[in-house]
Specification:
Blueprint: H1 7-13, H2 17-21, E1 43-45, E2 52-58, E3 68-75, E4 79-88, H3 92-97, E5 109-118
Antiparallel strand pairs: 1-2, 2-3, 4-5
Amino acid sequence: MIAKLGVDDYLAQVGQWSDLIAFLVDELPKPPVRDANEKAGNWRFAKDRCSAEECIPVMNGPCGTLSGYAWEEKVDLGGRIHGSDTRRQPTDHEILSGKFDPNIGLDDVEAISARVEVS
């Protein structure tokens, strides 16, 4: 069995040019739907919230190239983000205007904390 069948391999071992033409299609298939969070090294809680998973690259494409990503269970412990807090001092403009400025950058933040429930 041939691991990767290119046009030259097909013509040399399988069929003729006229046979190959029969496999032509007008459009490429739609790409698979991909989760935007699928990046090697990302973590998430499994759907059942009972374990933590890491996104790992799957290298089973041609010549060992990247063919996609898979979520692999790494820790038999799950949970959820229960809440988070961000603390900062008001800016001079907020003090004078009495209005909250939603466009504050991270440089102005004093502390960020998260509460996690673990199961």
